[in-house]
Amino acid sequence: MAAAALVDADGRVLIAKRPRGKSLEGLWEFPGGKLNPGETPESCLIRELHEELGIKVAEACLAPFVFTSHGYESFHLLMPLYLCRRWEGLVAAREHEAIAWVRPQKLKDHPMPPADAPLAAWLCDFL
Q1: Which residue from 39, 50, 81, 119 puts its CA 20 to 30 A from 60's CA?
Q2: Is residue 84 a contact partner of residue 7, using CB atoms and an 8 Å limit?
Q3: Is the Cα dihedral 87, 90, 92, 95 positive or negative?
Q4: How far apart (Å, rounded) are the C-alpha atoms in residues 16 and 95?
């Protein structure tokens, strides 16, 4: 897994609401997804951000920031979070129920999966 915190010019962070019918439905998360075999986290994010949000991101615009480690019932997740401040195109919810631009201090007001919540705390402290 790999995730991205898109940060706009006003310092807000993009979060996406998991769609109905998927595990952890209705929770807010950072966009990203599963790595394909042989795929780097950066190339995964470039692909996932285009599929999920309709934007193009250059690898040079993805800055490794922090990672999370969380044990779910059936697997253990180790997920890096990258910061991204530059992309091409308009962000749109293609695969999520909704998207929102949120000030870092307000991320705690949006219920997140257990693995994403610590990432939100890091962003709040950093941004």
Answers
A1: 119
A2: yes
A3: negative
A4: 9
pTM: 0.94
**Sites in the chain below the pLDDT cut of 70:** none
The DSSP bridge pattern shows strands 13-17 and 98-102 to be antiparallel
Within 21-97, strands assigned E span 28-29, 32-33, 62-71, 76-84
At 127 the pLDDT is 87
SS3 13: strand
Domains in the chain (CATH in brackets) are: 2-126 (3.90.79.10)
Q: How far is CA 55 from CA 58, 75, 119, in A?
A: 10, 30, 22
* Residue type (1 letter), 6: L
Distances (CA, A) of 60 to 42, 63, 110, 124: 9, 8, 30, 23
